[in-house]
Specification:
Largest sheet: 6 strands, antiparallel
Number of strands: 71
Structural class: mainly beta
Strand content: 35-45%
Number of helices: 2
Shape: globular
Length: 871
């Protein structure tokens, strides 16, 4: 899964906010960032037009970072941002301290060089949609270089907007129509691809064999469909049966090539045992029929895989039917799903349902030498050009999918264009004709952004992707030929992740390329994992991202002077100087069985040595969840899956997959450990729930009895006053708090008033807290409950922590499940009778992890930025 609405690591002193005497102003708490940079997705970058070395960096979940030293160090500048998903940045050349930041929630403007931001009303996704969105925006905002009042916006909704008053008011000056693919008037339209980053996508629906058809008469299954003329790489029907067997059809990619409605009928010979099923359950697959028994089919999936992040295929489905033969051997359909009447299906992966909308406009660019000339790049109509400052537009004859253009700094008729998989093209006659520039570019290179040096128009730079890898190419002959330069000198002190891959690292999925106007040989690339800087026109690159914290921290633990942090994507790290520097414990290089999301940590100091347990979910491993164990403070580690479910759990999960997001250790015996995975049983698969280890996490057993809901976020705790007493916080149906008094052998549903409980916490006295729509407290082990907060609607309490010196002092975090800034941290010093907000200058207001460090008397908080504050 991609990061969104996720985590920041912060530290706040655990000192109660004092009462404010009359006439005085309470000093807001200060949070000091102490995290690392790198390891996430950086989507936008822009140099300041006149201040040498000032650079802005946009991040997909943590807003804007600013550097004043050419990217050597960054700090977050999110004050006033209403959304943290930052996908486009631009500066005003006429008023260079005016900076625009476009998020998925709308447009923001700064008039003080990015120190503070103001949201521009009416630009939200449900309004004008002057937004920048993942995979739908490259440069979504542009300012006229001679008149800062004129601003252009490229909308993912297929419009170009123009403002003549510095972004206060907008009008649409260009609007695209729908894509027109699969243009039948009815049925279910399914778009495979260009929705998100997934390389697969599908729909599924339950099926019931028709009552008017004898099982022996059925000879096949069919669909009425209409393609769009494309040919996706791999598309299959998958049939699940009541016997547990799963069958996959032949490749149906050719079915998309016909753009007229027709019936596609598949017989037994078109199906075989699904290879994934055969690999996971070889004995069942061997015993199953080689072809489907049509009368046992209970579910149909239609899925495609391939280059879906960048390529889309569209099909319109009319009906699903089983087939019999009449007396003359003609096929007779027996309809079981009619999508003309009922379009309801389940989806997964890279899928969009519904009628087509206008394709995105990726970028808009203004010529510096001729500001009346503006060019926008569209997803399916190529380039559109205006020669009258956006008042009228004409479509240029270019490849249909365009990313962006760059003008020659001295001649607006010379235009270089990046066209994704169609590569790089050049026009010398104001777009009338185009020539493709391919010499030296990789065959699989997908060009995303192109830039021309303002000092020398022969110097042209282009970035793009080559799968997950990235490519940077430079040209010294105005684009006639290209040289690749993508090796990166890594600095593990600023980005400690994957230290074993520090040598020989290469650029990964670049997103924006910006050059320093004060020194055009200086380039900066925002990218996945490691943004990079060049002093020499891209001939050499070094990682520069210190302080631009985008890490999704999921847990924080302390032992002496050491701080341990787990994170999505990046593994588990340790700091031995209270956050001044960090070191990766695992993984140290890409490992298909371990690389992925680390979730929860348990640290016990035994005879002076830290014993560490971490839960993890690999991206692509054979096992969905693993446990990592270190007996020597992280110097070495082992992994285990013994007793954990091998399959990926999908039934009744929070994020579409069962993750090992909960971990708790018996405080009286560190060898007894409990682990929680969300997700219900499905078929003959046991699902998730609570697992127990009696050997310190090396082997696990699923508890024979489980709470009545296994849909869980962070909710698992052991009562320190009675280690046989366990608590489980669950969500949705049968959600609330469940309690066991016998080490998990039996469970009782003890709290039902709030059915979305995201976390549970037990303090040293045995008082129980549950975080849901508010904070709930029980002082009698769950028998009775009291609501002790009154939060804004749609917020959820996720982080909960108490001061072990005085349990009446506690902190909570209240968040919403989106990328907005709607969240905060709150403190009470009187057991919840009164609360004060202590969010202060927190650069990301939605932490989900709160941990108190008893050694330093500080509160650490985890979200997408790591901070701390001293006493």
């Amino acid at each position: 899964m991609t990061k969104s609405s996720l985590f920041t690591l912060l530290l706040l002193t655990a000192v109660a906010a004092p009462a404010v005497p009359a006439g005085q102003t309470r000093v807001e708490p200060h949070w000091e960032p102490v995290g690392w940079g790198g390891g996430g997705y950086y989507f936008s970058a822009a140099f300041h037009p006149t201040r040498d070395g000032v650079l802005f960096l946009g991040m997909d979940v943590s807003g804007v970072a600013k550097s004043t030293d050419h990217g050597r160090t960054f700090r977050l500048v999110n004050t006033g941002l209403k959304n943290y998903a930052m996908y486009s940045l631009a500066a005003d050349w006429k008023n260079p301290d005016v900076v625009y930041a476009v998020t998925e929630g709308g447009l923001h403007k700064s008039v003080d060089c990015g120190e503070t931001w103001s949201f521009v009303p009416g630009t939200g996704r449900k309004e004008l949609r002057i937004t920048a969105e993942r995979n739908r925006s490259v440069r979504a905002i542009a300012v006229d270089p001679t008149d800062g009042n004129i601003v252009y916006a490229a909308s993912p909704g297929g419009k170009i907007y123009k403002s003549t008053d510095g972004a206060r008011n907008w009008r649409a000056v260009y609007q695209k129509s729908g894509d027109g693919k699969a243009g039948a008037a009815s049925g279910l339209r399914v778009q495979f691809g260009q929705v998100n980053d997934a390389y697969f996508g599908g729909i599924w629906t339950p099926l019931a064999f028709p009552s008017d058809l004898a099982p022996a008469d059925a000879v096949g299954i069919g669909l009425t469909l209409q393609g769009d003329g494309s040919r996706p790489k791999d598309c299959h029907l998958t049939l699940r049966t009541a016997t547990g067997a799963i069958y996959r059809s032949r490749n149906l990619g050719d079915a998309f090539t016909d753009d007229t409605p027709r019936d596609v009928i598949l017989g037994a010979s078109d199906f075989a045992i699904d290879p994934t099923f055969a690999k996971k359950e070889p004995q069942k697959a061997a015993a199953a029929r080689k072809t489907p028994d049509w009368s046992t089919v209970t579910r149909l999936d239609f899925a495609c895989a391939g280059a879906l992040p960048t390529q889309a295929s569209v099909v319109r489905l009319g009906r699903v039917f089983f087939v019999a033969h009449d007396a003359n051997r003609n096929p007779v359909p027996h309809t079981v799903r009619d999508f003309e009447k009922d379009k309801r299906v389940q989806t997964y992966g890279n899928i969009r349902l519904g009628d087509p909308v206008a394709g995105t406009i990726y970028s808009v660019v203004v010529s510096h030498v001729k500001p009346s000339r503006v060019i926008a790049a569209t997803a399916d109509h190529g380039l559109v050009l205006s020669d009258d400052k956006g008042e009228t537009w004409r479509v240029l004859s270019t490849p249909a999918k365009a990313a962006i253009v760059a003008f020659d700094p001295g001649n607006a008729d010379v235009i270089h264009g990046a066209f994704w998989a169609d590569g790089v093209w050049k026009s010398t006659d104001a777009g009338a004709t185009w020539t493709k520039s391919v010499r030296g570019l990789g065959e699989k290179f997908s060009a995303r952004e192109i830039v021309v040096s303002p000092d020398d128009p022969r110097e042209v730079y282009v970035i793009g992707s080559e799968g997950w890898n990235g490519g940077f190419y430079h040209s010294s002959d105005a684009g006639a030929s290209w040289t690749r330069s993508s090796r990166v000198a890594v600095d593990p002190t600023m980005n400690p992740t994957l230290p074993a891959e520090a040598r020989g690292s290469s650029l990964s999925t670049p997103t924006n390329l910006t050059l320093n106007p004060r020194n055009p040989r200086q380039l900066y690339i925002s990218a996945n994992w490691r943004p990079v800087f060049s002093e020499d026109g891209g001939r050499t690159w070094e990682e520069r991202v210190r302080g631009a914290d985008i890490t999704v921290h999921t847990d924080i633990r302390f032992s002496g002077d050491r701080v341990y942090v787990s994170a999505m994507d990046e593994g588990t790290l340790v700091s031995e100087d209270q956050g001044k520097s960090w070191r990766a414990l695992w993984p140290r290089k890409y490992d298909s069985e371990l690389s992925g999301h680390n979730w929860r940590l348990a640290v016990n100091n035994i005879n002076g040595v830290d014993r560490i347990i971490a839960t993890a979910s690999s991206w692509n491993g054979r096992h969905a969840n693993v446990v990592v164990i270190s007996e020597d403070g992280g110097k070495t580690f082992t992994t285990t899956t013994a007793g954990l479910p091998k399959e990926r759990i999908t039934a009744n999960t929070m994020w579409g997959r069962g993750y090992a997001r909960a971990l708790a250790v018996d405080p009286s015996d560190p060898l007894i450990v409990y682990l929680g995975i969300d997700g219900d049983p499905s078929g003959n698969k046991p699902g998730g729930g609570i697992f127990k280890s009696e050997d310190g996490g090396h082997t696990w057993k699923q508890l024979p009895n489980q709470p009545s809901s296994r849909r869980m976020y962070y909710g698992l705790a052991v009562d320190p006053t009675n280690p046989q007493r366990l608590y489980w916080g669950a969500c949705d149906r049968n959600g609330g708090v469940h309690r066991s008094e016998d080490g998990g052998q039996t469970w009782e549903h003890v709290f039902k008033r709030d059915q979305w409980i995201f976390n549970v916490h037990v303090d040293g006295t045995g008082t129980l807290y549950a975080g849901g729509s508010n904070l709930w407290r029980s002082t009698d082990h769950g028998e009775t409950w009291q609501q002790i907060t009154r939060l804004k609607e749609k917020r959820a309490v996720v982080g909960i922590e108490t001061d072990p010196r005085d349990p009446r002092t506690m902190w909570i975090s209240a968040v919403t499940w989106d990328n907005s800034d709607n969240g905060g941290v709150y403190q009470t010093t009187d057991g919840g009778a009164n609360w004060v907000e202590v969010t202060g200058d927190l650069s990301h207001r939605k932490p989900q992890i709160l941990r108190f460090n008893p050694g330093t008397h500080e509160l650490w908080s985890g979200q997408t930025v790591l901070h701390k504050t001293g006493r």
